Queue: 3 jobs
Job 1
Amino acid sequence: QVLDGAGLDVDFHLLSPKGETLVFDERKSDGVHTVETEDGDYMFCFDNTFSTISEKVIFFELILDNMGEEGQDQDDWKKYVTGTDLLDMKLEDILESINSVKARLSKSVQIQTLLRAFEARDRNIQESNFDRVNFWSMVNLGVMVVVSAVQVYMLKSLFEDKRKSRT
């Protein structure tokens, strides 16, 4: 997501380890992409060469799901259990609840981060508008002062006696 900068747009490229283009967005202000991955190094690039004069502030988040935590972590607790099958079932239920809470908490953290990014972009736009309104208000005030001074001068010149008075 582009938070600040002229036009609020940027190009985005995502390349696979084989060099294939997976995602290519031109002049977008935000985007969400989901990609099935394979082993290797991926390359992503935010490109602003079309607008070299203005710099951009970018927010991005890389979320990796299911990174090898399934098999190893879930079976570690089983070696400490010495009891009946009922106890195993209760522990499995507790583990499922904990994993569910962990997943939901992770999702809420992601959503809050995204909302903070939206808020930052909107705040930058608001501050830019505030500066623009203040500038044009000052220009307007200056024009009003000049116009009022010219009006006073013109009114005074109407009532001046231009004839030479002889005494």
Job 2
Amino acid sequence: SSHLQKKRRAATARRQHLKSAMLQLAATEIEKEAAAKEVEKQNYLAEHCPPLSLPGSMQELQDLCRKLHAKIDSVDEERYDTEVKLQKTVKELEDLSQKLFDLRGKFKRPPLRRVRMSADAMLRALLGSKHKVCMDLRANLKQVKKEDTEKEKDLRDVGDWRKNIEEKSGMEGRKKMFEAGE
């Protein structure tokens, strides 16, 4: 028994160790991912947002402001379109996961209790008020004639053919047959 307990303890310890190792690995992966995202962001900003050099004259300054406003408008439109796409995708994802949830049947089935119920009660429960057929089980039984039972009795007397063969085989069987006058 103690050997089994040691084995169990070892398995549990191993499981715990594996779990903590996996969590550690996941944590470092998340850190790497965050760092990579930050680098990617910096690269994007460097490429798309060059450092601003302010011109000297009023006219050039106004032109720059107009350009910046136009750029802001186009970026806003882009952002809006992207947000709408994202919302649509999120909605689709939610619908699909709901479908999955429904298909998988995550809901808990209630424990079923055995209920004694007559055939009539069962049909009434299933069909409601439409149920008019009375299930008198005896009414559907076949009528048995007396001759049938006598045939069956003969068959019963003959019994299993294997048994008859065994009884009639060998010297013992021949003796019985002789005594019976067969």
Job 3
Amino acid sequence: PQRSEEAKAFVNAFLKRSMPKKKDEAIQDILTRKAVVLEHYSKKKTKQKRKKPKGFTAKQRREMRLFEIEPEQQRYAIFLPLHELWKQYIRDLCHGLKPDAQPHMIQGKLLKADLHGAIVTVTKSKCPSYVGITGIILQEFKHVFKIITKEDKLKVVPKLNNVFSLEIDGFISYIYGSKFQLRASERSAKKFKLKGTIDL
């Protein structure tokens, strides 16, 4: 315990150190009013910017062959389970594909759905050699479909100037590739017009 004089001296010295910019008279005035506000200079903390991990560029992906399917994997039977999963996905998306379901509602959902695993057929084309190609969609890009046929051949079919048919549980939908030139991720947000004339 300190005596009153020692305590007073300690407080005066403490306030002088804490408030170096104030004069002795101001400090004494503060003491008489019994209100003490200490000045505090806080150091500004510099925030470290988090570096966002950069993905591969398109050129790097091509060089690494990330999207290429090896020849030994190009077999129709390997991807049949993927087709079964896709059918279940569409049934869940369309609430069971009931007979009384409205066709335009199912068509609208199919246009925005992920088509990896769907079996499609080229029904019309400006290039006759594409007509009749049927298989499972393995990859969808902005301008092409990569399709594996029952003959274990990987076909790259352009969307432009081709019409594709897609059948599931008796419901047949037609996709006009010229109006379908979008990435799968972009299609989910696009509004498609169900009516209108389509020229190949």
